[in-house]
Amino acid sequence: MNRTLTPKSLSVAAWLPTLLMAVVSSHSPAALAHGDEVHAEAAPLQSSGNNPQRLPDGRVLLPKEAQHRLGVRTLLASQSSMAKSVELNGHVVMDPNRGGQVQASSSGRIKAPAGGIPALGSQISQGQILAWLIPTVSAYEQAQQQAELATTRSQLKLAEQNLQRLQALVNTVAGKELQAAQAELSALRGRAAALSAVNVGEALRAPGAGVLAASNVLNGQVVEPRDVLFSIVDPNGLQIEALAYDPALVTNLAGASLQGVSLRYLGGALVLRDGALPLRFAPQQPLPLALGQTVRLIAQTREQITGVALPASSVVKNSANESVVWLHEQALLFRAVPVQPQALDGKTVLVTQIKAGSRVVTEGASLLNQIR
Questions:
Q1: How far apart are CA 95 and CA 264, in angstroms?
Q2: What Cα–Cα distance (Å) separates residue 60 from each residue in 47, 73, 173, 275, 367?
Q3: Which of 128, 152, 195, 349 is the most buried if burial means most Cβ atoms within 10 Å?
Q4: Which residue has the higher pLDDT, 322 or 3?
Q5: Are 299 and 255 in contact (CB under 8 A)?
Q6: pLDDT digits (tens, 9 = 90+) for 103-115
């Protein structure tokens, strides 16, 4: 049967397909799923913009709340002129005028003094007896020494008696005979004392005051000539010896720093040693150092360089292992800028790749660098 379409029915037929599409699109795929059906695609998640994220151009979007949680702090960069610095490798040495070493002058056997051999770390005074060195001789040589000592003592006794007899006859004896007897007696006494000291041994005395840093002896140990037996170090007399490979540094250095403590430049050698020139520095303040310890110091030259001084914590490494600093460009945006930092001391670096007036991240840069 044919029905005539009225204007009302024509309008409904026109908007009915649009209504059906709206109903279908208003249901999510999860709502249409039922039973054990598996839907391969899900609706992609859209970022709300309130989470830290790395933008396609490499910048980082960090909301204010996240900035406070990460402890991000910034500094307004300003240009300044600083001394150009170089990093030098060195080690701790002893001041040649303070402390010292005790070596064996001949082969012998170590004998402890009355108070015993001092322990490591003991305070040592100048001239203190650290040990006795008894010469090592064979039984035959020892018997000869004893026989010679007995003969000398007998001659000494006769010389004393002869001098007493001449002094009793002082008015009848010539003065030269009395003087000869006195000289002979003095010589025999010295010889007897020298022969007696052989059995006592050589006293090993401290050449200076300080702390006993090394002890390489035991009671009864046999040592050879030139063996280092004791090392005495003055903790306030340690120095830093650095190695320079540029002869111009010897006369161009103004000072240095180690662990934030200033070092006074003492001077450098002009003769190569193992292909390098030794430079000497003295700490201006006490430092916890040990003799022979390897260190890395920052030396300042007399040459000036202009740039932006920043805390060393501002410089971090990116994924390409490049040194970068983070600039706070906008309220929520941060951008990494590659730099070539030059160390000024142990806490500050100088960069020339950023402009004055830039706001640089000084705290939290390492955390900011990890946002992906």
A1: 14
A2: 14, 15, 114, 48, 11
A3: 349
A4: 322
A5: yes
A6: 998 888 999 999 8
Structure confidence at residue 14 (pLDDT): 45
Residues 372, 366: Cα–Cα separation, whole Å: 13
Dist. CA 75–CA 314, nearest whole Å: 10
Instruction: State the Cα–Cα distance between residues 198 and 163, nearest whole angstrom.
Output: 28
Total length of the chain: 372
Q: In DSSP terms, which residues pair with 134 in a beta bridge? A: 109
Instruction: Sketch out the chain's domains with CATH numbers.
Output: 60-85+305-368 (2.40.420.20), 87-94+234-302 (2.40.30.170), 100-231 (2.40.50.100)
Tokens describing residue 185: 């007696």
Bridging pattern class, strands 100-103 and 73-76: unpaired
Alpha-carbon distance 372 to 368, whole Å? 9
Could you give the CA distance from residue 92 to residue 83 in angstroms, rounded to a whole number? 25
Distance CA 321, CA 364 (A): 18
More confident residue, 344 or 122: 122
Residue 341: which of 364, 370, 312, 318 has the closest Cα?
Answer: 312
Dihedral sign, Cα of residue 85, residue 87, residue 93, residue 96: negative
